[in-house]
Amino acid sequence: MIQVQSGTKIVMADDKALRLEAGAYALLPDYRPLTMENIPKAPQKYQTLALPVPRQLFEDAYIAMGSIAVPSRPLPASASNLPEEAAALFDYCCQPGNLTRLPGAIAKARLMELITWFALCGAVLGQCESPRLEDRLRQMIESDTAFDWTLRHAARAFNMSEATLRRKLAAENTGFSEILSDTRMNRALALVQTTTLPMAQVALEVGYDSPSQFSARFKERFGVNPRHVRNGSEHFERIGVEVEHSGADALP
């Protein structure tokens, strides 16, 4: 879920463009290649606030709604005329620490309420398409980023040899080590921004026994020290695994 705070965002999928002006809310699908253009409007910079939400919560919310029509394909969708109370809920969920301070069941209920508001305003997450091998591997690693994942573990999970897995990932222009590192760093970013866990614990949660090694890898990935991200003393840009240089997509 995103809100464009300043400037314009253009999202392309299947040669169709979704144009989002400042103040607009939208839903971007998971495991779907998207082309994005961020356009600043002088004198302000481009900025978008993004709230990542697990797919399962969307599916649970749609089941609870009963009559919702779920698109057969996952495409970007805007949430038109989002009510003030829904916008306030989005802001609340994006504030670091707000959801993590709540009991798990309450936090889930808040997010499902927000999903319901988006759906009522026309932004419904489409059915998940069969993900690429890379996406399946990311999902597996995301299930336990602290685990000491190896190529052998992954190959066994997918019932193929290590050589076959390596070859199939190469065909998708990626590799096991690259996917493992990127998945862990994305998880680390979420933990740094949405929890108050000590950095040493964050490091352990994403598979690093050494906080200094974790900090170095985080800075290499995002260009900023994790403590600076938590303190809000530096800004960085991120969307998916690509860095966009025309503004900031803040991931709470």
TrEMBL record:
Keywords: DNA-binding, Transcription, Transcription regulation
Family matches, as SUPFAM superfamilies: Homeodomain-like
Pfam families in the cross-refs: HTH_18
Domain HTH araC/xylS-type: 135-232
Family annotation (InterPro entries): Homeodomain-like_sf, HTH_AraC, HTH_AraC-typ_CS, Tscrpt_reg_AraC-type_HTH
Name recorded for this polypeptide: AraC family transcriptional regulator protein
Species: Rhizobium phaseoli
